[in-house]
Write a structure and sequence with these properties.
This protein is α+β, with helices and mostly antiparallel strands and about 160 residues long. It has helices at about 10-20, 85-90, 95-100, and strands at about 5-10, 25, 35-45, 65-75, 105-120, 150. A six-stranded mixed β-sheet has the order 2-5-4-3-1-6. It is globular, with a radius of gyration of 16 Å.
């Protein structure tokens, strides 16, 4: 199986991604696998009110709602001051000034987006094999990643 990534994204960002208004996901780190790679979108349960996006809009909150191919990772060396980079991310000036302080940021480009008709459970995902083909005794994912984590790609 191929290695993929399970990425946690807040419901308000999932809304923008599903509308194709958000074309990069900004992170403080990036995977050590070659692009392109598959990313599974875990829609978090945490909801930030006041943005006009309803929590009930995502019946899949707390589940894996879709996937995309990350076909490139763009590095921002401006500490949140590149307007084009952050326009693609959907982040406001305030959001990027809080999140992007004193470090390079990575924009994971979203391509080939697929939102599932029926969200998937975390338990459907497995940890990748360890070195030399060894497996964990119980390798199913039990809780979402803080930001992202490696998983095995699911073959349809």
């Amino acid at each position: 199986m191929s290695k993929a990534v399970l990425i946690s994204i807040k419901p308000e960002w999932c809304t923008l991604i599903s509308r194709k208004e958000k074309t990069i996901e900004v992170r403080k780190s990036k995977p050590k696998i070659k692009v392109p790679f598959k990313c599974y979108i875990y829609c978090t349960k945490k909801f930030v009110s006041g943005k006009g996006y309803g929590y009930k809009e995502w019946a899949g909150a707390g589940k894996v709602i879709g996937e995309f191919i990350c076909d490139t990772i763009i590095t921002d060396h401006t500490f949140g001051h590149d307007p084009l980079f952050y326009a693609m991310s959907g982040m406001s000036a305030v959001e990027r000034s809080v999140y992007c302080t004193e470090r390079n940021m990575y924009g994971w480009h979203i391509s080939d987006l697929k939102i599932y008709d029926k969200p998937r459970e975390l338990s459907e995902f497995r940890l990748p094999e360890m070195a030399m083909g060894f497996r964990y005794e119980d390798d199913t994912i039990k809780r979402p990643p803080q930001s992202w984590r490696y998983v095995e790609e699911i073959k349809e």
